[in-house]
Fold:
Amino acid sequence: MEELENLKNNNFTFNKKFGQNFIFDKNLLNAIIEQSGINENDDVLEIGPGAGTLTKVIASKAKKVISYEIDKNLKPILEQNLEKVNNSKIIFADALKTDINEIEKNFEGNYKIVANLPYYITTPLIFKFLKSKKVSSMCIMVQKEVGQRLTAKNNSSEYGAISVVLDFYGEVKILRFVPRQMFVPAPNVDSCVVQIDFNREKYDVSGELFEAIVKSAFSSRRKTLANNLEKDFVISKQEVYEMLKTLNLSEKARGDSLSTEDFVQISKFFDKNGIKSK
Ligand code: SAH
Structure:
C-alpha cells in the first residue's frame, strides 16, 4: 500500500492522543463513500484526514473536499498522497476549536460531512454541527456502542438524549459494522459507520425548547419525567401529571420510555402554555 509506505518513509509515529487509527483498505473506503450517497454536486467537510486515504476517495466522487487535520506531522504525507488530487484542501487546525462560521467560509451553500473520526470528539462534534442549517448530512465512523446509542429506540438501555435529539433533526441509521482489524493500528473497540440525513423541518417545534425538555428528562435517569421537569421548568408535578393524562402517558413515565413523538407533544404543550426553563 503506497500510503502506508509513505508513512513509514516519513518516520511517522501514530499519536494515541489524537485517536489515530487509519484505514488503508480501498474496498472499505469505496463502500463507505458509495453508501454515503456523495456525488459530483456535493461539497464535503472531512474531519481528521490522517494519511488522506478517505480524502482521496471522497475527492473522486465529490465536487470538492475541505479537510481539517490537527496533526501537523501529517503535512508531508498528505502532500504526497494527495499530490494528484486537485479538488481537495487540507487545513491544519483543531476542528472542535475552530469557530463554525470560520469553517463554513469554505463553502458557498450546503455541505456534507464525511469522517473517520477520532472517537474522543464524536459527541461534541455531532452537537457542534447539529444546529447548522448548512449541514445536510453526516456520514461518520464511530465506536460500535456509540452507533447503537445514536440509533436507539425508546425502552432500550442504549436510548438517551442524543438518540432523541438526532431523531428529531433527521434520520439516523447504521450503514455497516467495521471490525477493529480494519484499522492501523487496530483500536481495542469495534466500529460502525453511521449516516445522519438532516430534515430540520420534520417537526413544527422549536429545537431549543425540545432539546431543553429532552435534556431535563434524561438528567436523572432514575427519576420520573415529572420529577425532572419540575426541577428544571416552571411547572408543578401536578401540572405535569395533568399534561401526561391528556397525552395518554403514564404518571410514571421516564425519559427512556418516551418516543420522539411524545417529546414533540410535550414540547407543544410547553410552548402553548408558555412554560419556561428555571
Ligand atoms: N480519516 C483517516 C484518519 C482517521 S484517525 C483514515 O480514515 O485513515 C483520526 C484523525 O483525526 C487523525 O488523523 C487525527 O490526527 C485527527 N484528529 C484528531 N483530533 C482532531 C481534531 N480535533 N481536529 C481535526 N483532526 C483531528
The radius of gyration is 21 Å. The longest strand covers residues 135-143. The chain has a mean pLDDT of 95. The beta strands are 43-47, 64-69, 88-92, 111-116, 135-143, 170-178, 191-198.
